[in-house]
Amino acid sequence: MRPNALIAQWQDGKSATNCWLTLGDPSVAEIMAHQGWDSLTVDMQHGQADFAAMRAMLTAISTTKAVPLVRVPWNEPGTIMRALDAGAYGVICPNVDTREQCEQVVGACRYAPQGYRSVGTSTMRAVLYAGSDYISHANATVLAIVQIESAKALNNLADIAGVPGLDMLFVGASDLSLSLGREVRADSSDPIVVEAIDAILAAAKKAKLRTATFCHSVDYARAMMAKGFDLVTVTSDQGLIASGSSLSAQFADRSE
Amino acid sequence: MRPNALIAQWQDGKSATNCWLTLGDPSVAEIMAHQGWDSLTVDMQHGQADFAAMRAMLTAISTTKAVPLVRVPWNEPGTIMRALDAGAYGVICPNVDTREQCEQVVGACRYAPQGYRSVGTSTMRAVLYAGSDYISHANATVLAIVQIESAKALNNLADIAGVPGLDMLFVGASDLSLSLGREVRADSSDPIVVEAIDAILAAAKKAKLRTATFCHSVDYARAMMAKGFDLVTVTSDQGLIASGSSLSAQFADRSE
Amino acid sequence: MRPNALIAQWQDGKSATNCWLTLGDPSVAEIMAHQGWDSLTVDMQHGQADFAAMRAMLTAISTTKAVPLVRVPWNEPGTIMRALDAGAYGVICPNVDTREQCEQVVGACRYAPQGYRSVGTSTMRAVLYAGSDYISHANATVLAIVQIESAKALNNLADIAGVPGLDMLFVGASDLSLSLGREVRADSSDPIVVEAIDAILAAAKKAKLRTATFCHSVDYARAMMAKGFDLVTVTSDQGLIASGSSLSAQFADRSE
Amino acid sequence: MRPNALIAQWQDGKSATNCWLTLGDPSVAEIMAHQGWDSLTVDMQHGQADFAAMRAMLTAISTTKAVPLVRVPWNEPGTIMRALDAGAYGVICPNVDTREQCEQVVGACRYAPQGYRSVGTSTMRAVLYAGSDYISHANATVLAIVQIESAKALNNLADIAGVPGLDMLFVGASDLSLSLGREVRADSSDPIVVEAIDAILAAAKKAKLRTATFCHSVDYARAMMAKGFDLVTVTSDQGLIASGSSLSAQFADRSE
Amino acid sequence: MRPNALIAQWQDGKSATNCWLTLGDPSVAEIMAHQGWDSLTVDMQHGQADFAAMRAMLTAISTTKAVPLVRVPWNEPGTIMRALDAGAYGVICPNVDTREQCEQVVGACRYAPQGYRSVGTSTMRAVLYAGSDYISHANATVLAIVQIESAKALNNLADIAGVPGLDMLFVGASDLSLSLGREVRADSSDPIVVEAIDAILAAAKKAKLRTATFCHSVDYARAMMAKGFDLVTVTSDQGLIASGSSLSAQFADRSE
Amino acid sequence: MRPNALIAQWQDGKSATNCWLTLGDPSVAEIMAHQGWDSLTVDMQHGQADFAAMRAMLTAISTTKAVPLVRVPWNEPGTIMRALDAGAYGVICPNVDTREQCEQVVGACRYAPQGYRSVGTSTMRAVLYAGSDYISHANATVLAIVQIESAKALNNLADIAGVPGLDMLFVGASDLSLSLGREVRADSSDPIVVEAIDAILAAAKKAKLRTATFCHSVDYARAMMAKGFDLVTVTSDQGLIASGSSLSAQFADRSE
Fold first, then answer.
1. Contact E24, F51 (CB under 8 A)
2. How many domains does chain C have?
3. Within 13 Å, how many C-alpha atoms sit on residue C216's CB side?
4. Chain D contact for B76, CB < 8 A?
5. Cβ-defined contact of B178 to D78 (cutoff 8 Å)
6. Residue (of B212, B154, A115, B21) closest to D123 by Cα position
7. How far apart are CA E97 and CA F146, in angstroms?
8. D165 — contact with chain A (CB < 8 Å)?
9. What is the pLDDT of residues F49-95, one digit of tens each?
10. Model-level pTM?
């Protein structure tokens, strides 16, 4: 089975870069896949990818070596399994607040006896991408990732982190801020938010889990890597268009 | 943030008209949006819109002032949040029978601390439609609407209506009739069904909620407005095609 | 090969009804196919069907006995052949002004030696719909139809009508009116336009061709049938929505 | 209402053939529908059909007499109801392990009072396919089918089989093997798996339910029919492409 | 009819900005439409928009005041007319080398007697966008634009510019450079290319036509406006993603 | 620029295998690309791929080393250029009967000064697939291929074969048979057809062009390779489904 390059990279002690794909556009996914990112995330929650787009985006990413991840819209086993069948090498589930919710995510990512992921046909896309021995090695290769993004999840951190088979905690700083009664800010330096993020990082390290977080600037991304995060999401396709356009829009204003 | 014109209209004491979009066709949505309806509902339950169609339909509706609503297929938080991210100014959830189910719907429509709606990126479509201050005002602007359409829901009426943050009860007369052991009839005058509808209306008024119902004729719609309903669904895109075609079909018959 | 029911109907001395599908929506096509029309036209010129939609609409129509016709956007052999491969039992080409243009249309509809239609694979959709002996009988079954809709075409009427293999002249009254310097009117009674239509009808009858025309009312359609037209297009999917909505819009106005 | 041909076939004592559609491609569905299968299954779990594809595939299948079934991705009432509204004559739900899960499936397939399926508009696709009396007869016509594919489900067999309104148990041998700690094998002859399959068959017969299973060879399919299975899935669209291509690939190898 | 804001802007002596949409993505089109560009061009030649995407993109642009233009893939009347029916307020045709080719473009953009554009149904999208009096005013409102981009076209400049009804010459500097035997360069300062551009500008001014050109930097765009160009294309959606990503890619490199 | 592996293979004296993709389905294209074919052809003429499907199929093929070819529906420069921009490494144009038609095809495949192919943006898909030096090397890398399939083309063989820049003659035996007044047969042994094929092969060899032909059996394909054909199309996706299904259909028949 094609190995998960992120796992090898982490074992070498290197953090990995990630770009978020929110447009749900396979052509954009293919362009992005050629830019040198270590991994790309197809976002089905706040992004526009539905199932058909997600699958086409995974194909587009497979023209390169970038590792494909999928964020599902909600903790729903059917969707998680379909993302994996389509060839995702990691699934990120939002809004996991309890151990039971985490077990549901991890179980959907693992074939029996470790979990309850359903065995698809031998011709599913994951087999094309990963190889014909996919079913034997998938449990050890695909990443089960949950987002920690609420006060409730903070209270249950050790319980969540202790779920066998879980690979990574992903900090959802915006929702976390709101849940803690703080303002939503890009790369927030609010001490209460920072403290929460540090707690997540510590809990993950204690449980020997990988960690990830969103960043809105290269400086913040570097700082987070220095802090010990294994994967940093640096920008998104939509973010690049928006920031690029606002520069051009300034030109447009001056032109009148 | 762009205000919700339905709220203003109701504050002025006016009922609002609504047309149901069941074809799942963005071109039809754009045509309908130019006909003068106060609001349009993209139906993802019995209609054919999936996520991609829904989003394109909301864009099409946004070329006009008609207020866009979405009926989701089921009480599933991921779908409710995606409809709101895509720019819906109200979400209608079918088959709400209990206070817990209602709380799940309303929570998915509200950012913390009122609910658990997840904060998307600053470039989600809702921000294009509503304005850059969307997150601050969304809780007070988007409508959380539940359908009351079973004997069980009737029994739990006060509990459901009492959920904080709920905006409207929508009468689902067909399912309600079946659940009460009565025949499904357009604009039913069955006394048992009428009594149930009156009970829903009364419970809503007592809890200071808005109310809505489906109508299959202009006369019935007028009667429902007179009765106190704040929003009446008068027809659907598919209904217009079906009724128009049956007239033409008669011509076709005569031509043979 | 499945016979073309329109040909049989005409041989029985009966005019045929037709409805125009402009929305490019396979679901609408399936609804319309169940209303009893003798034939349906997928409009790729002024309607919204592209190739993918056209093919899906032909499948939808094939769930019933309605005869499927396609209007192509322009006199382009590749498009005409693809419509036939997809199972159209007639192709309508707009804006045919000369004998050479007409020969190009008819040639694209006929396998050698009558024309230059390319032989597709034995698994094209037309074979599913029509039967495995499609290639042997297609030349005699599928209709080659050209629209006469300019002053120039009127001048070349006999030449156009004389092209071997042509089946039908379709009057394009709107373009014809404009080309003759008259206003575009639904079911026009402008004597210059009427005279032109009569000339087309006469030329067709002389050349033993079938004739068709658009109508915007049932009364006009009956009159055209009485005049000798073999196929009358009575309404369109978009027309039904528009007229139905305008009634509802009146209700909406009154409700304020 | 159009009767369910599978029910009639079973009443005549005949087993039925089934082909699995995993490509999610309406054109392939139409081709397959012309091959003489008794029934076809649109697979939304391990196959690639999403809602839009599923609906288009059901239309394509409706050009023939093949009975359309849909396997949903997960036990989610909204999806089950949408498949039925779109015209499925049977819904297969994967991973049903308990009586409660089975009741949720069956309830979603039945209008009140037998279940809680929501009544759609009178113009839903199912009415086009089945007839205008659909709502009155649907409960007795559409099949509610659950997959038995885990050790847990085996333990709950009698409970699951006893749910009123359930029509069929579908053996999921791959997942079942894995859950029993056995290797996944096509047409497995592993005695532990065979014993489990026999237990499912026996439980179904006792509860007067129909039974179905997947097969990967014609010989195995015949054996399963002889054993008493009412429906055998013989192959899939993707399987035919894969097996055919591997033959051609051998040629390709030799050509170098 | 909704006026063409570009015409008004030019009459006020102001140049207009333009952004090129090559991704063929309606969501990107909607984002871009909110950035303050005077106009947006849907590119069907080198961009990825096909008919369905183009139409959806025009709808998305119509949620704002940006003027929608379409570049067609080739000088083909059917495609030009479909773009206009879909609501384009200007059509750009590539590779126009002769007066006859130019006449074919302009004729396809004008209803009789000025041209041969076919009259669509009264419910085409252009009517929704522009108003019910579209057909009367379209000839004076929609822009007919041809690209001058070959040595041959340079030789025929006066002939091309003299075609009645033509509105604008659009410089295609890349193809022009290649055709003149020069290297393709962004914002080329090659004297032979510059001379050719100046000749096009002069010919346009002499014939009282508007002019446009592509720019790859804000500085060049300002220079072209100063030189007298009426419309400058400053960047593209794909360009913004590519340039933004290359910055991020540098970060990615450093992170390893 | 990524070299064209077919050219290298031919220079090594090896014939190449090809599979025809007629379903227009990107998932099928990805499956096929993993089977070991030297090249795959996306068929836009008799197959179902439109522009959007073609582009997605080229992306899917790019996950492997198979060389992607596209057959366009007709000799239309806009379509040929779009296929190349999307990353096709060869374009096959059907129905080329004269030197002028051949020159139009070849010119559309070559940048100036060899032809008139339009220079796209630096971010077109072909650059992602081929490399950033695409424009400099494309003329020597992408294959210009014309189909010889009529009596008229046979008469003009030397003229057609002599067009500078042409790479290959592709025998279209079905259309050729019909055009010569012979029956359409798979792998025809009709002496008149065989003689015509030999003439095409001879003319190609004389003009130092490559040759290709369709085959319907492995035996015929081997014979054609032995005869000197450089590329043989052995089967199609749809053919594999059809032949595989007919076997299964036999089982289905026996089961009743």
1. no
2. 1
3. 16
4. yes
5. no
6. B21
7. 25
8. no
9. 999 999 999 999 999 999 999 999 999 999 999 999 999 999 999 99
10. 0.96
